[in-house]
Design a protein that fits this description.
Blueprint: E1 2-12, H1 34-47, E2 60-62, E3 66-69, E4 78-82, H2 98-102, E5 106-108, H3 109-116, H4 126-132, E6 133-134, E7 137-138, E8 149-157, E9 173-181, E10 186-193, H5 197-209, E11 222-224, E12 228-233, E13 237-242, H6 251-257, E14 268-271, E15 288-291, E16 296-303, E17 306-308, E18 311-313, E19 327-329, E20 332-337
Helix pairs in contact: 1-5
């Protein structure tokens, strides 16, 4: 069974910094969570007059932004997906590279398809498998020797603020990691739903405003092509994995998805951050925990591709004058998998 998605490729024309829940500028993530991208799309659509529904649902779902490698524009891109949280022990004879296998974070579409259909993605021999292990990527395609995602740590100086007595506060140096994508590579995401055309409208603006942290310093700018399609071959199954950040709609839904304890495997992150609406930039949003991509859940009935989860409002009740909600989407694309 195949399901076809719209796929958006973002090729960055400037470095990008993607912060995490630790707010550590010295370290950047190498991919962008779906809730951050959804929030950026919602904000920019609202800024040009689009009436965002009261529940924050724009009528589509997106995956998180995962890496892809592409040498030249005419070449076929190699799409990477997250390794499932359900770890498998390296088979007999693979012990000497077991640590390398454990470090794998990203798996190309070919191998990802094998995994979700219940096949072993490791090659027949250790030697063949080692050829597919490239840093934290597993792929049949040849990647650049030094990788296609590179970074540098740059010294920066925090803009001085003024103390309560009006005296200037000394500037403080800090370090920021900036991420670069080689050749025509970048980040991609897949989308499904009725109002996908809104994504194109938002990206046309975001490409010049940037995404990620420190956009005012020229970071996070990108180009994107007319979306193409990506077909994922999968089975019907009682087990699913999320390709987006996931926030359950209710305790009952989560309980149902945790039914088979031997199948379930997950991780979660605290999502929140600073409010970006002036003059409330010094206030923090409320926080919520979400399950990260590649988590594995069980269903009571066999299912195909689905969208599950809640969109939550993280607007603090204690702030007067902030007259709009702050939506975070925990509505995720789920792919059935055979464990």
């Amino acid at each position: 069974m195949k399901t076809t998605f719209k796929v958006y490729k973002l090729h960055f024309t400037s470095p990008i910094h993607i912060g995490d829940e630790r707010l550590d500028y010295g370290s950047s993530q190498k991919y962008l969570h779906s809730d951050s991208m959804y929030a950026a799309i919602t904000t920019v659509l609202a800024s040009v007059g689009y009436k965002v529904p009261e529940n924050g649902d724009l009528g589509f779902q997106i995956s998180s932004l995962f890496p892809y490698y592409q040498k030249n524009k005419e070449d076929k891109p190699v799409y990477f997906f997250p390794k499932l949280k359900k770890q498998s022990i390296a088979p007999s004879g693979f012990q000497k590279i077991a640590k390398k296998i454990k470090k794998i974070e990203w798996i190309d579409l070919y191998s990802f398809t094998k995994i979700i259909n219940g096949e072993n993605y490791l090659k027949a021999t250790v030697e063949q498998t080692e050829k597919c292990l490239q840093s934290n990527f597993y792929t049949q395609e040849k990647l650049p020797i030094d990788g296609f995602i590179q970074s540098e740590v740059m010294p920066r100086v925090q803009v001085p603020r003024y103390g309560v007595d009006g005296a200037a506060v000394d500037a403080e140096p800090f370090y920021m990691e900036r991420v670069f994508f080689k050749d025509e590579s970048g980040l991609f995401f897949i989308a499904t739903g009725e109002n996908i055309e809104l994504i194109d409208k938002a990206l046309d603006i975001l490409k010049n405003e940037g995404i990620g942290t420190d956009r005012t310093s020229g970071q996070g700018f990108f180009e994107f092509e007319t979306p193409t399609t990506l077909a994922i071959d999968h089975v019907e199954s009682n087990t699913v994995t999320n390709l987006s950040m996931f926030c359950p709609e209710s305790k009952e839904q989560l309980t149902q998805m945790m039914t088979d304890r031997e199948t379930v495997a997950y991780d979660f992150k605290k999502r929140g951050g600073w409010i970006t609406t002036a003059p409330f930039n010094t206030f923090r949003k409320n926080s919520v925990y979400m399950f990260t991509e590649g988590s594995v859940f069980s269903q009571l009935e066999k299912t195909v591709v689905s969208s599950l989860g809640a969109i939550v409002d993280l607007k603090p009740k204690s702030i007067d004058g902030l007259n709009h909600p702050i939506f975070r989407s925990g509505k995720a694309i789920f792919i059935p998998v055979k464990i």
